[in-house]
Write a structure and sequence with these properties.
8-stranded antiparallel β-barrel
């Protein structure tokens, strides 16, 4: 986690180190910023014998970038490099879940960390000087797990922080939707606020390891950020 934070800081400082003329040209084509997004994530099982017990509060944070596709900046390719902290609680019937805990029904409290790269087409209004602009986006995202833990509670015993990373699929892909506003905070600062929804298409847990069918991860997030 420390390496990830250091990488994000260096990427953000790169823009500050540019010359003023080069920076102005760069800024007309690319907008860089930081984002922090409180969210609620939920693992959604598709097979009987596995039930959702509760959602989980989480966080998404990191760099965001808009690559303008026209001079007015009303069309952009939106991407970034972010860290996703998510999870949920699932209850497995006997015979389901990891082999070590299949003898009895068990509750799994998932605590998952991903590196996330969103890729979306962003449409924006062109506000008057000093005004508020509106944006909407549609696209996808690529999540790569870097940590996976689960607290497993059975009828007789509790197992804390079980490492489940080897039993997770190595990528998660899904649909990304979002909408919100952008508003000026100063000469070179633009605030961003909105709501995003992510609907996972890929099984989070490897079915051969868990015998739990497909388990998708969905989330709603309050998107907050600042472009520099």
């Amino acid at each position: 986690m420390k390496k990830i934070i250091i990488f994000l800081t260096i990427m953000g400082m790169t823009k500050v180190s540019m010359g003023q003329d080069g920076y102005s040209t760069f800024r007309s084509k690319v907008k860089l910023g930081f984002t922090v997004n409180p969210l609620v994530s939920v693992l959604k099982p598709q097979e009987s014998g596995v039930n959702r017990n509760s959602a989980k509060a989480g966080l998404n944070f990191g760099l965001m970038a808009d690559f303008n596709l026209n001079e007015r900046g009303t069309y952009a390719l939106s991407s970034g490099f972010q860290v996703l902290l998510a999870g949920s609680k699932l209850k497995y019937d006997g015979g389901k879940g990891l082999n070590d805990y299949q003898a009895n029904p068990a509750e799994y409290n998932f605590k998952l960390t991903y590196i996330e790269i969103p890729v979306a087409l962003k449409l924006k209004t062109s506000p008057e000087e000093g005004g508020i602009g509106f944006w909407g986006q549609f696209g996808t995202y690529f999540d790569f797990p870097v940590s996976g833990r689960a607290d497993v509670v059975t009828m007789n015993q509790t197992f804390d922080r079980v490492n489940i990373l080897p039993e997770m699929n190595r990528i998660n892909i899904g649909m990304l939707l979002g909408a919100g506003i952008e508003y000026p905070l100063g000469e070179n600062l633009t605030g961003l606020a909105g709501i995003t929804y992510q609907n996972g298409f890929v099984d989070v847990t490897r079915n051969g390891k868990w015998d739990d069918g497909r388990v998708n991860m969905n989330s709603f997030a309050l998107r907050l950020g600042v472009f520099f």
